Amino acid sequence: MKTLGEREAREEILSRIARLRPDSHRQWGLMTVHEMICHLSDSYLGCMGQKYVSPASGLFQRTVMKWGALRLPMPWPKGVPTRPEVQQGVGGTPPANFDIDRARLAELVSLFGSPEFKESEAVHPIFGRMSRQDWMRWGYRHPDHHLRQFGV
User: How many percent of the chain have pLDDT more than 70?
Assistant: First the structure.
């Protein structure tokens, strides 16, 4: 299973982000490619404690849902609701400049996958506290899901 803590997997995600274009078309969902970039950045910022994201966690989310999302070798389902603070058109950061926002996302991916990321200080709004391995798995799977949404 790929994780963002692995250099090759991190470089794969960064390469896919670099291939996004302002006119990239979604294959499902409502977000534009630029909104998706901001959503991913907001999600990383939230998990790093740099943006407030309201919790929506219970025993089911912290156990069964987390286990399935991080360990089952199948694509994540489409259309799963997100937290309002990272949802475009609600509380998510609005798109500004495509190239700058895309570069910011790449910086966050690199930082999140680096040893500087302190998983002990992070809390996922749905899955709760996680091990470094779980964070790195989520850090790969979340952008992978949305990059597939835009065909990269």
Answer: 99
Question: How far apart are the C-alpha atoms of 111 and 109, rounded to whole Å?
Answer: 6
Helix (H) or strand (E) holding 121: none
Compute CA distances 73 → 1, 35, 108, 129, 147, whole Å: 8, 27, 25, 22, 17
Separation in Å, CA 40 to CA 1, 11, 17, 64, 128: 21, 16, 11, 23, 18
| Residue 147 backbone phi and psi in degrees, to 5 | -65, -35
CA dihedral (60, 62, 67, 70) in degrees, to 10, reads 130
| Degrees, nearest 5: CA angle 95-97-103 | 100
> Structure pTM?
0.93
Are 33 and 21 in contact by the 8 Å Cβ rule? The answer is yes
Task: Kindly state the average pLDDT of the residues 123-138.
Answer: 92
Per-residue pLDDT tens over the stretch 49-87? 889 988 888 898 899 999 999 999 888 888 887 888 888
